[in-house]
Design a protein that fits this description.
The complex is a heterotetramer, with two copies of chain A and two copies of chain B.
Chain A (H helix, E strand, L loop, with lengths): L2 H13 L1 H9 L1 H6 L5 H8 L3 H6 L4 H11 L5 H7 L18
Helix pairs in contact in A: 1-2, 1-6
Chain B lengths: L2 E8 L4 H4 L6 H20 L4 E7 L13 E10 L10 E3 L3 H13 L5 E7 L2 H18 L5 E6 L9 H16 L6 E7 L16 H13 L2 H4 L4 H8 L6 H10 L4 E10 L4 E9 L4
Parallel strand pairs in B: 1-7, 2-6, 2-7, 3-5
Antiparallel strand pairs in B: 1-9, 3-4, 3-6, 8-9
Helix pairs in contact in B: 2-4, 3-5, 5-9
The chains are: A mainly alpha, B alpha/beta.
The structure holds fe (iii) ion (2 copies).
């Protein structure tokens, strides 16, 4: 397992327009270029930000990735995927970018 | 001889721009008023150059090259992000002074990574556009503004004591200059905030007040004694940005702080502190 | 305790791969034979880990972040270039030792830029594929190989004396390790060569022989006393890579050199030197 | 005049596939994004490697740029554009990449 290669993939997706487009068009094709396990690729493909963070991926990357590329960009859903529930889900509402 | 004539701590919270109306009006007034007062105070210091200590949020530098500290020595533009209120464009740098900081560093054990053509991010542009630009208006002249970025957002992080030493090296480099530069240094950073983690939205007012008190006391030793794990546990990954505060304080000779404003703003996911660093007697 | 058990200087000339038949057969035999002998000698040192000191040629790092020195601490692959004879793929690193070099550096005034996921270039891959890989064959085991890159190709260049100090820091970090690492360090670089300038194709045998003689003598003080302008004028911008030689020599305790081969090869636009660094008595 | 911005443009052209394509399709459009003077843009558009080096641009970049994107990729012609003549033009013949 490599948080470094996961970060490499997510960083490219956060800064390279062409990478974003390739990922949107064909996530598996995009991920093939990285030496990731099938499980790691699934975390990325399925926007499993909880698993990504558990693997050590920088939360700034998971948040940017979620906000730019996930089908459901809501930050409420993002926190849910990180394991939040109840009141914690509502603790902020703004449409966040990185800070 | 060049001089560091003062410094500031201030936040660079982009949520403030994305969701301007989220907190109560009084809070908004406090925060925006603090930027205005910093601008007035910056102008009053009659500076010739500003240095902003910013932080990359894993956009500017990738996992193939994570520098401990970088300085922009050449052309500048930005910010890289499209954020409401921030204008993109070319930015005026003081390339001579930035180059001097690098060569002075090389001769004194500080191996700067160098950005010769650099696009800044919001950690530079928020202080630049809300404090430096208005001060330029007041003074009626340009204030070239050097960007410095410390590794606060992506590991390996610059050690806190090293950030303070780097500030002292910046001061020594400025003081070694023949030019009569009057330099103000801005440590740009939130206090407590959790960025992209499940705790996001929490603010740790106790931690923030502790940091502001150390700033007021000018207690650089205590400010640089925090362990990274404790900072993250008590105040979030965003609070690693107190490195930028340590660097600014290390640059201002015998600094004492004066609190300008503080607000805990969960709606903007951050504890926002504004402080002026006054040079002591030397 | 870890130990630096030896070192090498060797070139990484891509023209050798692009135009293999350009020089006379005797020259080709000398150069390829030298790589083979280095591989045999590397295996004879019975190392556990190799460190290759390479040089970016303005591909890996851009003008937005030019590090003075970088180390790969995580995943490796490459090389980035498509060159005949070089196989692209995943490369085995010693992440524990690389991480130790970084943390030891942070505690001792060497602020490493860090590459956690890194694609190497030919300055790593030529020594790796023509020396480390064959040594792995001889030994029947893997030799994880840490990449270090010094600023030799793009200014601001790392100062020559600092390159030697960095080598000494690498040695100290290795020696601070509890593991019984046996480390060999390779300084990868051409001697005289002009890259992309009007003089390209010239070779300065006098300069090259001077450098080789300093290597044989183990005269690190003289090797690091060259002025950058003189190096460029006498031996070309490519000769700035003697920084990598200084770093390797600085890492090998009380190094004395043994020349393995030298060839001035205008057809390959470079003076090619091969030398082994033997540790002295300590 | 800025060698830094010239290097920024040439570096992008040497490492980003999409930049290369944009430059091939529309050099002026590509160069518009850089804060370069008209003269500097002309140096790039016309592969004036001599002028670029005189402005301080790193020769590794000018060589890579020439070899990847110029219509005439010959290194003989490259040296000619740098001011070489006579015997110096023939001092090496290999199809050089960076070294
Ligand atoms: Fe920040
Ligand atoms: Fe080279």
């Amino acid at each position: 397992m490599s948080r470094h290669l996961l970060e490499k993939a997510l960083w490219q997706l956060s800064v390279e327009r062409s990478a974003k487009q390739r990922f949107r068009d064909d996530p598996d094709g995009f991920l093939k270029r990285f030496n990731l396990s099938d499980e790691e690729k699934r975390w990325v493909r399925e926007f499993d930000v909880g698993a990504l963070q558990a693997a050590g991926v920088n939360p700034m990357l998971t948040m940017g990735f979620w906000q730019e590329l996930s089908p459901d960009r809501s930050m409420r859903r993002y926190k849910e995927r990180l394991g939040a529930s109840g009141e914690a889900l509502n603790s902020f509402s703004a449409a966040l970018k990185k800070g | 001889m060049g001089k560091i004539v003062g410094g500031f701590w201030m936040p660079h919270d982009p949520v403030m721009l994305v969701a301007p109306d989220a907190p109560a009006q009084a809070v908004r007034d406090t925060v925006w008023g603090a930027y205005e007062r910093c601008a007035q105070r910056l102008a009053a210091l009659d500076p010739t150059t500003v240095i902003i200590i910013g932080c990359d949020h894993y956009i500017l530098f990738g996992p193939h090259c994570l520098p401990s500290y970088v300085i922009g020595t050449g052309d500048l533009d930005g910010p890289i992000e499209g954020l409401p209120g921030l204008t993109k464009g070319v930015i005026d740098n003081n390339t001579a002074l930035a180059g001097r900081i690098v060569s002075h560093g090389a001769a004194n054990g500080f191996d700067w990574a160098v950005a010769r053509a650099f696009t800044v991010d919001h950690s530079y542009s928020i202080p630049h556009q809300y404090v430096v630009r208005p001060a330029e208006q007041v003074l009626g002249r340009s204030l070239p503004t050097i960007p410095v970025y410390l590794a606060c957002g992506v590991d390996p992080y610059i050690p806190l004591p090293r950030a303070a030493q780097l500030g002292a090296q910046i001061r020594a480099a400025v003081e070694s200059s023949d030019d009569d530069e009057r330099v103000v240094i801005i440590g740009s950073g939130g206090i407590s905030h959790w960025v992209g983690t499940v705790e996001m939205g929490q603010v740790s007012e106790a931690f923030d007040q502790e940091i502001m008190a150390l700033g007021v006391a000018g207690d650089l030793a205590a400010l640089t004694a925090y362990r990274d794990d404790d900072i993250k546990a008590r105040a979030g990954n965003g609070a690693m940005e107190i490195r930028n505060f340590a660097c600014a304080m290390g640059a201002v000779p015998d600094a004492r702080g004066e609190q300008i404003a503080y607000a805990a703003v969960p709606e903007w996911v951050t504890g926002l502190g504004f402080l002026q660093l006054h040079p002591g007697a030397r």
